[in-house]
Structures are given as C-alpha cells and as structure tokens.
Amino acid sequence: MLRWLKGRGAATSAVAQMRARIAPGLWSEVLQTYPFLWALETAERDALLDRAAWLLASKTMNGARGLTLTDFMRLSIAAQAALPILHLSPRLYEGWEEIIIYPEGFRIPRVQQDEAGVVHEYDEDAAGEAWDGGPVILSWDDMLPQHGAFNVIIHEFAHKLDLSSGYADGMPDLSAHVELSPRAWRRTLSASLDQFTEALEAVEAAIPADVDPESDEAAPWYDQLPLDPYAATDEAEFFAVSSEHFFVDPEPLAHALPDWYQLLRVYYRQDPLNRTYPSSHLDAATP
Q1: Is the pTM of this model over 0.85?
Q2: Treating both helix axes as pointing N-terminal to C-terminal, what angle do 235-248 and 182-206 enclose, rounded to 10 degrees?
C-alpha cells in the first residue's frame, strides 16, 4: 500500500502546469529528433505531450556522475517513456519515483549461482536498468538516436509494464484488457520466443568458424533476425526487446512473428506498422 502511495502520479493541476511550460519549439525538436515519434499523427502527438507532461510532473529525473540535464534531455526521455502508455493508463508507471541518468554506460554488480552451486560475483556493463519498486536507470549516451531499433528507454519502461503484473515474466498486467486472455498471451509468448530462439540458433550455426560471433564481423548474420539476439535471454527480455522493435522498426517483427506483433498491437492499443516514417528513420541523427 505504502509503495503505491509513495509513487503516485501528479495531480491533474500539476500535470496541466507542466504541459503549459513545455515550449512548442522544444517539443517539435524532440519529435523531429526521434523519427518514430515524428511518425505519430497530430492527435497522437498531442496525447503523447499529455503523457510526457504527466511523467515530468510525476517523476524526479536526476543526473549521475556530474551529468547536468537539459530541458531537451528531460523532454526527450519523457516523450519516449510515454510512448508505450500513449493509450494506456499512466497508473501503470506508479509505485516508484525516480529516473537516474548516467552520461554513458554503467556497471551493475551481479551475483549468480551456477548449476554446481558455486556463487559468482561480477560487474555487468549496462545501458539501462529497471528496478522493481525502484528507479529506472538510463545511459544518456545510449539514448541518442542511432541506427537500428535499439531504444533503451522503451526497453526499460517495458520492463516496468511487465512488473506491473507483479513479476518480470513477459506478461504485463492485462486487467484492463478484457479482450486478452492470460492463457492465450502465455501460449503466444512461448511459441514466439521458441520460434525466435530457433532462428537465432540457425543464424549462429551459419556464422563461419573464422568469424568471432561476438565481433562486428558477425553483424551481417545477426541482421537477418527480426529482433536483437538479446531477446532470446528469457520471457521478460523478449517482451522488452520486442517492445523496442514494435515502436521503432515494426516491419521485421510483424513479418517474422505476426501473432506476437498482433498481441502487442492489442495490448499497446497502437499499430506502428500503419504509421508513415521518414525515409531515413533508421539513420542516426544528432539532436
């Protein structure tokens, strides 16, 4: 109970005041910097601005390691984080308060026990992290527009949606979606993850022995996949990575995994495949 009271959204009046403070020129700059936002229709852009204002009024954004956040940085983060809940209740992002932004990638201490019972402690390089009941942590360097569908903001906020059901298991809270059956979600999620894992294994088997699969030389093989290989990690990462691709570059996902794309379309109440993207929407840009 206290957890949800602590992270409740801002009052309607505070959101309205925040929205009024967002300069039209700054909003236009953010939209044009991220083509998948620019592809939204006028009514959707207005709705996104409302959601972004809610996020800015409801969450605290703090820079880490001396990073000073500009208005552009704050608004671009809020806009991208707001996209998944464009047609969902913002209450799905309640229960936590802070967004922490590092200037670049950071390291997270991990503890893992192997099958033999041996405990391993190590540091993992990360571009983002979403804590259950805690902050979202992001790397600004990894938030800059770039080639491909990678989007650390959408990825981490998809994890927050996943956690809204109580578990990071690839199935968000479906209580507001009477048209979606948890059993059907599980079945489609499992089948789609298996299909993607098989495709990944086939790609890895096709990489020549003299090519390091961890190097840039292997990119032409992995580029054949509809999702980043990290999606095969588990159900939670499959949902988060799929959400990135769904919003940023939906066509490969819709073509390769149509049932899964349809499920995401119904859940998010959006169909990015029908949006008109700039011809260079996958090219890197500089804000």
Answers
A1: yes
A2: 80
